[in-house]
Amino acid sequence: YAMSDDPHSLVSWLETHAPGLSGYLYQHQEEAAVRHLFRVATGLDSMVLGEPQILGQVKDAWAVARAHGALGSGLDRLFQQTFSVAKRARTDTRVGANPVSVASTAVRLAQESFARLNESTVLLIGAGETIELAAKHLSEGRVRRLLIANRTLAHAQTLASQHGGYALPLTDLDLHLAEADVVFSATAAREPIVTRVQVEQALRARKRKPMLLFDLAVPRDIEASVAELGDAYLYTVDDLERAVEDNRRGRREAADQAEAIIDLQVARYVETLQANARQAPLKRLRAFGDSTRDELLAKARQQLHNGKPADEVLEQLAHALTNRLLHPPTAALRDAALNNDLELTSAADRLFPEKPGYQHPPVATPIVRTDDADPAP
């Protein structure tokens, strides 16, 4: 986002300094640009509707620009308003409240099933994208202990180091399954890697303490018959997809509410900008008058300090102040008269109406001397 009087030159500059960027550039101007930023920060422009990480990324971009002195006052005000609008939209609606991925939905169900997930041990089986996302959501909510088992131990170690977990080779699964209160599994295996027999043995070791299992893989990682065990609660991708679709529907409804909030806030922001623009000439006029007064007053004080008579100083100050203040409008009105600018001359009439009884000073009429005119006596 940028503020520029010449957006085309700005695009050319960006393409020069960042080759290949042109394919990713698109332009929104004025009100459309404000609306776009509000929607991006709120998560309405994301592939995942209401994605909460987007607002943090916008704040990071704002902070970097500010740190490098690239953020002017106008753009800074726009971003501050953006943060306020995004917060309100996410607070007043549920646009980002419901998880819309299988992994995040599974984590939410685990949190709802275990009132104290932070006192539970969680086992992740696999190290792919789905398990990475589950690990991210779990680490944000904090768990007591996080175990990550994978066929390639190095991949498990990398993921464990990122989220404060412990890496295990998949061959040690039997040794640690009983420790897990919650299991998430998402591998590319063609056959189940968690069998009914393994879960039965784990439940006996846990003394029938319940175990929650999420099979996020297709084909399945966990044998379907595990669901028949009394203390095992198994959710499959099909179960979770139904919850995900319900959440997506809820987010779409919330998005409509958020759009209404954004429409209102865009209108208010644009009105504020227009009001400020209307005030700008008045501020410039006031600043010109103040600076002129201060300059001439300082000069008059110096003259008094040097011993110049007060009456003379005051008269010079009055004349100088009048001439300095009236010179710009006088010059502009003279040009307006020459160019037949009726709008400016009528504005002057409104600004400086004639007082009742005012008489214009006489205008001298020039005398044109001809060759046969008698010389003046």
TrEMBL record:
Residue intervals of the Quinate/shikimate 5-dehydrogenase/glutamyl-tRNA reductase domain: 109-242
Key words, A-Z: NADP, Oxidoreductase, Porphyrin biosynthesis
Ranges in coiled-coil conformation: none
Residues flagged as site, Important for activity: H36
Renumbered residue ranges of the record's region Disordered: 352-377
Pathway: Porphyrin-containing compound metabolism; protoporphyrin-IX biosynthesis; 5-aminolevulinate from L-glutamyl-tRNA(Glu): step 1/2
This enzyme's EC code(s): 1.2.1.70
Domain Tetrapyrrole biosynthesis glutamyl-tRNA reductase dimerisation positions: 257-352
Enzyme class: oxidoreductase
Stretches assigned to the Glutamyl-tRNA reductase N-terminal domain: 9-93
Pfam families: GlutR_dimer (PF00745), GlutR_N (PF05201), Shikimate_DH (PF01488)
InterPro entries found in the cross-reference section: 4pyrrol_synth_GluRdtase, 4pyrrol_synth_GluRdtase_dimer, 4pyrrol_synth_GluRdtase_N, GluRdtase_CS, GluRdtase_dimer_dom_sf, GluRdtase_N_sf, NAD(P)-bd_dom_sf, Shikm_DH/Glu-tRNA_Rdtase
UniProt binding sites for NADP(+): G126, A127, G128, E129, T130, I131
Stretches that traverse the bilayer: none
PROSITE patterns from the UniProt entry: GLUTR
Catalytic activity: (S)-4-amino-5-oxopentanoate + tRNA(Glu) + NADP(+) = L-glutamyl-tRNA(Glu) + NADPH + H(+)
GO BP annotation list: protoporphyrinogen IX biosynthetic process from glutamate
One annotated GO molecular function: NADP binding
UniProt similarity note: Belongs to the glutamyl-tRNA reductase family.
Name assigned to this protein: Glutamyl-tRNA reductase
Organism: Xanthomonas arboricola pv. pruni MAFF 301420
